[in-house]
Amino acid sequence: MQNGPAVRRRKLGAELRTLRTGTGLTSGEAARLVGWHQSKVSRIETGASGVKPADVRLLLDAYGVRDGQLRELLLMLAGSEEAGGRNRWWHAYRGILPPTYRDFISLESQASGMRTLETTVVPGLLQTPEYARAVTRAAVEGVDEERLDALVEVRLARQDVLRSDPPLALSAVLDEAVLRREVGGPEVMAQQLERLVEAACLPQVRLQVLPFAAGAHVGLTGPFVIFSFPSTSDLDVVVLDQLTSSLYLERKEDLMAYSEAFNTLQIHALSPEDSLDYIAGIGDGA
Q1: What does pTM read for this prediction?
Q2: Are strands 237-241 and 246-249 parallel, antiparallel or unpaired?
Q3: CA gap 140, 149 in Å, rounded
Q4: pLDDT tens across 212-269, in order?
Q5: Is residue 84 part of a domain?
Q6: Domain range for residue 120?
Q7: GO MF annotations for this entry (predicted)?
Q8: Number of separate domains in the chain
Q9: Number of other CB atoms surrounding residue 224 within 10 Å
Q10: Sheet holding 205-210, edge to edge
Q11: At 169, which helix (H) or strand (E)?
Q12: 73 and 95 inside one domain
């Protein structure tokens, strides 16, 4: 388990190593091509040190990488603010967002797919403004109104990934407790359930409910998010959100375990069609 920046360095280094070996170059030969010492290439590939976006461009040019989507993603991992993709709007909120949250938003903005299990609250990408305000007020102790407004703005701005071109593909499994927990009062919750029904009809959103009747399940260990990225699965990562930080799992064994767990949850959950009816039924007081 590591923090987001460390994971990105390691993943970037591993991908650059794969690209280098694919060209048949040794690390020493690659270093000579770009005018570096061999040790710099080795440090980058092992994730021992960070790398500037400009240096990544040099290596990608040396390796003959022309895939624009892959170049953009690797530049993002290097921290480039000039890489294309979705707008990096969150930089305007640096003063109020902790680094772990900014890092999560950065991954979310560049991901092509997101699979999430939620056991307590509605996923941030599907929250109404009123629900987001109630959740944030409860989660951030002593928050003043000005900061609360800004945090809600951030939550709502994140939702643009579902409307971008191409949109983020969101697959969410919601424990029934998410739907039954009255956040913000009856009116706020009713509006939130209506929002979920609307979202479930979007082609880029797959929403499933895990009813109480399903009994004990693998998701009882807690919520998680799996980010998938275009061009290569080697950059996929699992995020476990904690009260004061986020933990990132990058090992293939961890990714496989969480992917299998998510698949199992989908099997035990209601179908998307039945889930939509279930949510609507709760909203109607059934």
Answers
A1: 0.80
A2: antiparallel
A3: 12
A4: 999 988 888 889 999 998 766 567 889 987 655 678 888 889 999 999 999 999 999 9
A5: no
A6: 90-284
A7: DNA binding
A8: 2
A9: 20
A10: 205-210, 169-175, 113-118, 224-228, 237-241, 246-249
A11: strand 169-175
A12: no
